[in-house]
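Work Package 4 report. The design task specified in the project plan requires that, given a folded chain encoded as structure tokens, an amino acid be chosen for each position. We show below one input record used in the internal validation round.
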């Protein structure tokens, strides 16, 4: 269940961050409400995952996967560009997540 909590926490964080862009500095009530709910649910589910997973692993996964997903949303939804350095950085983040999952004992598997 911890991995499910973590995956859903990541999704809510991405929703909250996407709504943050739409909130225009918290001047749009609906988007602002989605931000608060998204982050609230995300942190709650992250805390549930920490009952089983190590904090280093869970936070690394939560932040890294969130960064990659929100970067992709930025490109496709908000029409933000990606340069070579940005693509390299995102590739390094994905590589780090793979190393954590495949080779590290931090995850507890």
């Amino acid at each position: 269940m911890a991995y499910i909590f973590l995956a859903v926490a990541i999704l809510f964080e991405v929703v909250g961050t996407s709504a943050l862009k739409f909130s225009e500095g918290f001047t749009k009530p609906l988007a602002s409400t989605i931000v608060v709910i998204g982050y609230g649910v995300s942190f709650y589910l992250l805390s549930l995952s920490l009952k089983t997973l190590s904090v280093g692993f869970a936070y690394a996964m939560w932040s890294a996967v969130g960064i990659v997903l929100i970067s992709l949303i930025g490109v496709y939804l908000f029409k933000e560009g990606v340069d070579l350095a940005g693509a390299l950085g995102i590739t390094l983040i994905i590589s780090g997540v793979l190393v954590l999952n495949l080779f590290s004992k931090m995850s507890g598997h």
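The longest helix spans residues 55-76. Validation will be extended to a larger panel in the next phase.
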